[in-house]
Amino acid sequence: MAEVRIEKLRKSFGAVEVLKDIDLTVEDGAFVVLVGPSGCGKSTLLRSIAGLEPVSDGIITIGGRKVNDLAPAQREIAMVFQSYALYPHMDVAANMGFGLRFAGTPKAEIAARVAEAARILQLEPLLKRRPRELSGGQRQRVAIGRAIVRKPQVFLFDEPLSNLDAALRINTRVEIAKLHKLLAATIVYVTHDQVEAMTLADKIVVMNQGRVEQQGKPLELYYRPANLFVAGFIGSPAMNFLPGKVTPGGVDLGADGALALPLPAGAVPGSAVTLGVRPEHMRIAGTADGLRIDATVELVERLGEMGYVHLRLPSGAVAIAEIRGDVGLGTGDRTSVALDPAHLHLFGADGHRIA
Amino acid sequence: MPQGTYLRLLVFFLGPALVLYSVFSIYPLLATILNSLYSHQKDGSFLWNGLGNFHTLLFDPTWSEPFWNALKNNFVFFLIHMLVQNPVGLMLAALLSLPRLRFRATYRTLIFMPTMLSVVVIGFAWQLILSPLWGIAKMFLQTFGLGFLFAPWLGEESSALITVSLISVWQFVGIPMILIYTALLAIPDELIDAATVDGLNQFQAFFWVKLPLIWPTIGLVSVLTFVNNFNAFDLIYAMKGALAGPNFATDIMGTLFYRTFFGNQLQLGDPSMGSTIATMMFLIILIGIMVYLFLVQRRIQRYSF
Amino acid sequence: MRKPASAFAVHAILGLYTLLAIFPIVLVIMNSFKAKRAIFNTPLRPPLPETFDPIGYSRVFGDSSLPFYYLNSITVTVGTIFLTLLTGAMAAWALSEYKFRWNTLLALYLSIGIMVPIRLGSVAIIQLVAEMNLINTLTALVLVYTAQNLPLAVFILSEFIAQIPRDLREAARCDGLSEYNIFLHIILPLIRPAMATVAVFTMIPVWNDLWFPLLLAPTGGKQTITLGVQQFLGQYITDWNAVLAALSTAIVPVLVLYVIFSRQLIRGLTSGAVK
Fold first, then answer.
1. Which run of H or E residues covers position B181?
2. Domain count, chain C
3. C233 touches chain B (CB under 8 A)
4. Residue C251 near residue B121 (C-beta atoms within 8 A)
5. What residues of chain A lie within 8 A of the CB of C168, using their CB?
6. Is there a single domain that holds both residue C206 and residue C77?
7. Nearest-CB residue to B29 (from C116, C179, C210)
8. Is C182 on the interface with B (CB under 8 A)?
9. Which chains touch B (3 or more CB pairs under 8 A)?
């Protein structure tokens, strides 16, 4: 296994820059998840690592070797595609051994490696089947098997779970996590699903419009998002944002009230800020250590034990608060929410985190 | 991929097809057009003649009479296809695409069958059937008490062209049928269900819902008919020979072209005038395609389902 | 179709038209097995033991060239299909996979051949074939037919290739295949259904064509069966047994092929038009 380093990577299609100055290190054996909205460049970045997209500028190294000018097959990578990309005219065993056949690997060794991968993935009874005779989950495993057989330095996954149904997705997610431990593999994994990102990753890279917005451990991104974009992207439902102004002792939220808050040096009183608070840190009718805001209930969504209340605040802003148990609220009711002072996020006018 | 490798790939994959196509299709077309600008001398050489050949073809009576005759016949040939082949094809397609129709595949296969056969065979078979010698056609008419209607249609100047056209219609009706049938099948059943809910019967649903949706296909069928008709030759050559008798009554552009180029009992072959006629055919077909592309196709609204 | 009366009307129309479509074919084949007197006296009856007479066939196959004409037709058709599929598939792959500057222009260039019949270039084709010393050869026919069928083949095949998921080609690139091997080991096996369609489309007009055999290989034993039958009919025009047998020998192989491939053909036509 090997480390992947990306330095000052740029790519443009004509005048459009799809990757802007990407710097990223994937440590040896790490599971790195690239996440972001569609069109953010995460797939392009993955395909650039694979060598399927030419890059305009920058350096990609795999295991210390610069691979910019190498063909995909020479980069010692293996890729698991979103559509699995199994060759429909070959059986499972032939699919898994196909790359090795063209690398000139001896037949016996191909057979041994295919058997080994089939054992790990419990594909042995399926080796003689064609892809169309397999279920979605089985195809997925064959696609992973094909990658394992090649003993690559790096595994690249391009949204591998998005074609599976919800139950299978959770199963396969767990399988992939186990496989990572078993193979001690370096993995770069693209998804738009933040649950996948949070559960699988050693390190999450949040991308937006061709830029890396933030990279770090999953909980780091959750507890200390570096900017408004990451704050809004990680967590579901999304973080509530309340516009306000810096005052000498804290933040003024206008009609929603004012908040005493220790501010870092350099926060100029009078400048615009955004206060962020996650639904799980907004308590309906909770005891108020910090700020309490009056609100009107617009909608109650119950998911079982927990649920969400959509609220209209005095300023006209909309916020979502998490509830547990039956709080006895209905549309049109008046209530109040308390913001948990330990979990408030403050972003400056440029969107960057202040506190 | 390095530039050189890329270029080598393109040459390898595209080269053979482009060479074959250019040498045996595009070059001959261009050379024929060029040929039409020269005149063929008795000693076998060619002299620049500008548009002289076209002037001869259109205004010299020995050339223009056969030309206008063939052009007129060709238009009649085309009109009969438009008025008989395509409506009949449309009707058959509409019937074949009815839901829950039994024997659908059998009908489709059998009706399409004549289209598969060689024009030579078809032409000759019909010649036998219509021949007074065998008398099959006459026998049929007599069965219905219509024996007096029988005439040697293929042999009479007044009816030969219509008869030949109808035989061609009979052979090729499968093409519009299949194309329209396919277009009809592509219309989602829900649309017809919706029309039924709106109170339309089968006929109304066809005219008000299906027909408007298949206009693009009917347009395509028409232009295909035009190109094929103005390029036709085999059937008339097989049934009536290069002289397209009786008295050139069945002469169309294709037979005129063949006769002019190769010569026959009445005249010597002339490659220049042959090319001139081919160029005229090219222009006619081009005009037909242009009319379709710029006048017809643009006005037809296309829908995706 | 719920009312029996309208269902009956539909079947009556379709049935009658079907009869009209197959009647001449059946008539010719049926009578080709009958004695001359029966052909004229009872043309609508199938051959019975007392009217059966294969004299026409013995005359047709007595003309020793017809088997060779069959062979010529098979050679030309198979050769054309092979060359069209090979060069067509290669070009279709390049046009749909590699985006280069002349891509659209090339597609337009090829579409000329779909719209304008190649026959119009016949004068120059004859001159060209004469210069290449290919008059009265099957090679000339194969080359011309391939040029004629290539554009449509390229369009059908490239549409099909474009439907092959991009992931599959990229998986092959990750697996270390060269572009040539991707074409050979991934694309060719996957476009087999489309190639079958193109083969049927190519086969029928080539087998049935009269024009180019007449122009390029009219004599010297290189006639195709269509031209051979046409010439045979001209010679034996008064011998009804021979004429009917000759027509039947030309019809039957095509009918057999048609029955075998009709599903393929109709599906091809259908998918092509639906896109």
1. helix B174-186
2. 2
3. yes
4. yes
5. 83, 85, 87
6. yes
7. C116
8. no
9. C
Which secondary structure element, helix H or strand E, spans residue B39, and what is its range?
strand B38-40
CB contact under 8 A, A99 and C167: no
Q: Give the DSSP letter of residue C34.
A: B
pTM: 0.80
Same domain, A189 and A244: no
> A interface toward C at CB cutoff 8 Å?
47, 50-52, 71-74, 77-79, 81-89, 98-99, 102-103, 146, 150
> What is the tally of structural domains in chain A?
2
Instruction: Please answer yes or no on whether A84 and C167 come within 8 Å at the CB atom.
Output: yes
Spatial separation of the C-alpha atoms in residues A274 and A345, rounded to whole Å? 8
| Single residue among A185, A213, A232 that ends a domain in this structure | A232
In this predicted model, what pLDDT tens digit does every residue of B96-130 receive, in sequence order?
A: 888 778 888 889 888 988 888 888 888 888 888 88
| Residue A113, pLDDT above cutoff 50 | yes
**Is residue A352 domain-resident?**
no
In C, which residues are within 8 Å of A71 by CB distance? 173, 176
| Contact at CB, A79 and C174, closer than 8 angstroms | yes
Q: Which of C160, C175, C186 is best to mutate for the A interface (most A CBs within 10 A)?
A: C175
Q: A185 and A155 in contact (C-beta within 8 Å)? A: yes
For chain C, which chains pass the contact test of at least 3 CB pairs under 8 Å? A, B
The interface pTM score, or ipTM, of the predicted complex is 0.85
Is A188 a residue whose pLDDT tops 70?
Answer: yes
The two beta strands, A250-252 and A258-260, are antiparallel
Cα nearest neighbour of A85 on chain C: C168
Over residues A227-261, the pLDDT tens digits come to 999 999 998 889 999 888 888 878 888 877 777 77
**Do the Cβ atoms of C243 and B28 come within 8 Å?**
no
Domain count, chain B: 1
Q: Provide the token pair at C91.
A: 């070009």
Question: How far apart (Å, rounded) are the C-alpha atoms in residues A77 and A95?
Answer: 17
Name the average pLDDT for chain B: 85
Q: Do A85 and C181 touch (CB under 8 A)?
A: no
In a domain, A353, yes or no: no
DSSP bridge pairs for C226: none
C44 vs B contacts (CB less than 8 Å): 136, 139
Does residue A147 sit in the same domain as residue A65?
yes
